[in-house]
C-alpha cells in the first residue's frame, strides 16, 4: 500500500483576516502553524506570506525567507513556496521568492481561470482591515493569468533552481496544457499534480470530478509519469481527502483551503485538520509518509540543498 503524503497549506491568499481569528498572518504565526502541522503528521508544508501588520498577501522575499528559516529550524518537512500570489501581484513578483530561496517544491498554476472570491464579502459584517472587502470584490472581474509563456518561464527558473514544480490543476483543460508542456520538453516527467477543487471558476469538489480528472491525467500523461494530490475548498475538504486516499492519491489540508474543522467550528490551526486526515488514514490502514519518504516519492532534492540553508 502506498504511503500517504499530507501537505499543510497554512494561510494562502484566499481568506481574509476577518473570516477567522485563527488565520496566521505574521511570519511567526505562519511558521508556528506549519511546525504544528508537521508535528501532527504533515510531511510537506505550503506557504504564502502576508504583511504582518494587516494580513494582506505579500510577495516580499524577506518575509518568505523569515518564514522558511523559522520552519526549517524546527522541522525537516519539505517547504513548498507559492507562485500563485494574489490578484495584485505581477508574474515577476509571484516568482521572485522561489528564484531567490530555491525551495524543494514550488506551486506552478497550470492555466488561467476565473478565480472568484467575491461571495465571501457576505460573510463579513465588520472588516478588521480596510483592504479586505475591496480585495474580495475585485475578484468578480478578475482572470487569474497563467499563459503558456509564463508557465514556461516559471518552469525554467524552477528547474534552474532544482525546485520541483507542483502543478496546480483547477480544471480539465489544464491537463491538456500539461500534456503539451511535457511533449515540448518544458516539463520533465514524472510531474507532481495538485488537483484543486471547489474554487468558484474551477471544477467543483465532487467524487465524479476527481475521478474524471485522475482518469484524464492517466490518459493524457500516463500513469507512470505523475504523482498526485488533492485539495478541496470549504466543507468538501475532509470528504475529498477520504476519496483521494481510497484512490491512491495524496492529501492537502490547511487554513488556506478551509477555515473549519467541523460544521460551524473554526479550526484553531491547520494542525487540527492534519490530525483529522491522519485519523482517516489510520482507520483505512494507510501509512503516513515522513518528510524523507515524501522526498523519495516526489523526487525532491533534499533538505540540505535549499537556498536559505546554503546562505545560512
What does this structure look like?
- The chain is α/β, with parallel strands linked by helices.
- It has one domain (6-310): Alpha-Beta Barrel (TIM Barrel).
- It is built from 11 helices and 14 strands.
- The chain has helices at residues 27-40, 61-72, 91-101, 132-138, 148-160, 173-183, 207-221, 237-247, 270-283, 291-298, 307-310; strands at residues 6-9, 44-47, 49-50, 57-58, 79-81, 105-109, 113-114, 143-144, 164-169, 191-197, 226-232, 250-253, 260-262, 265-266.
- An 8-stranded parallel barrel has the order 1-2-5-6-9-10-11-12, surrounded by 8 helices.
- Strand 3 (49-50) and strand 4 form a beta hairpin.
- Helix 1 runs parallel beside helix 9 (270-283), helix 2 packs parallel to helix 3 and helix 8 runs parallel beside helix 9 (270-283).
- The longest helix is centred in the C-terminal third of the chain and has 15 residues, at 207-221.
- The termini are far apart.
- The mean pLDDT is 95.
Amino acid at each position: 500500500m502506498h504511503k500517504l503524503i499530507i501537505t499543510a497549506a497554512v494561510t494562502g491568499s484566499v481568506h481574509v483576516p476577518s473570516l477567522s481569528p485563527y488565520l496566521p498572518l505574521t511570519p511567526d504565526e505562519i511558521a508556528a502553524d506549519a511546525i504544528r502541522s508537521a508535528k501532527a503528521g504533515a510531511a510537506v508544508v505550503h506557504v504564502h506570506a502576508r504583511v504582518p501588520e494587516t494580513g494582506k498577501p505579500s510577495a516580499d522575499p524577506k518575509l518568505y525567507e523569515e518564514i522558511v528559516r523559522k520552519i526549517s529550524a524546527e522541522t525537516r518537512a519539505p517547504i513548498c513556496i507559492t507562485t500563485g500570489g494574489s490578484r495584485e501581484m505581477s508574474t515577476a513578483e509571484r516568482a521572485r521568492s522561489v528564484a531567490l530561496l530555491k525551495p524543494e517544491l514550488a506551486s506552478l498554476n497550470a492555466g488561467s481561470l476565473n478565480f472568484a472570491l467575491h461571495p465571501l464579502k457576505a460573510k463579513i459584517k465588520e472588516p478588521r482591515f480596510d483592504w479586505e472587502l475591496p480585495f474580495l470584490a475585485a475578484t468578480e472581474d478578475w482572470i487569474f493569468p497563467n499563459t503558456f509563456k509564463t508557465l514556461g518561464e516559471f518552469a525554467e527558473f524552477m528547474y534552474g533552481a532544482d525546485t520541483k514544480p507542483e502543478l496546480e490543476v483547477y480544471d480539465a483543460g489544464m491537463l491538456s496544457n500539461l500534456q503539451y508542456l511535457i511533449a515540448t520538453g518544458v516539463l520533465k516527467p514524472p510531474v507532481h499534480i495538485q488537483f484543486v477543487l471547489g474554487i468558484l471558476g474551477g471544477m467543483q469538489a465532487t467524487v465524479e470530478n476527481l475521478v474524471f480528472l485522475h482518469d484524464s491525467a492517466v490518459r493524457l500523461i500516463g500513469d507512470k509519469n505523475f504523482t498526485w494530490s488533492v485539495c478541496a475548498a470549504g466543507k468538501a475538504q475532509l470528504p475529498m481527502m477520504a476519496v483521494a486516499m481510497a484512490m491512491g492519491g495524496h492529501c492537502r489540508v490547511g487554513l488556506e483551503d478551509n477555515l473549519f474543522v467541523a460544521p460551524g467550528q473554526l479550526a484553531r490551526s491547520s494542525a487540527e485538520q492534519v490530525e483529522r486526515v491522519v485519523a482517516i488514514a489510520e482507520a483505512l490502514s494507510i501509512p503516513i509518509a515522513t518528510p524523507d519518504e515524501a522526498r523519495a516519492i516526489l523526487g525532491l532534492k533534499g533538505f540540505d540543498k535549499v537556498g536559505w540553508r546554503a546562505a545560512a
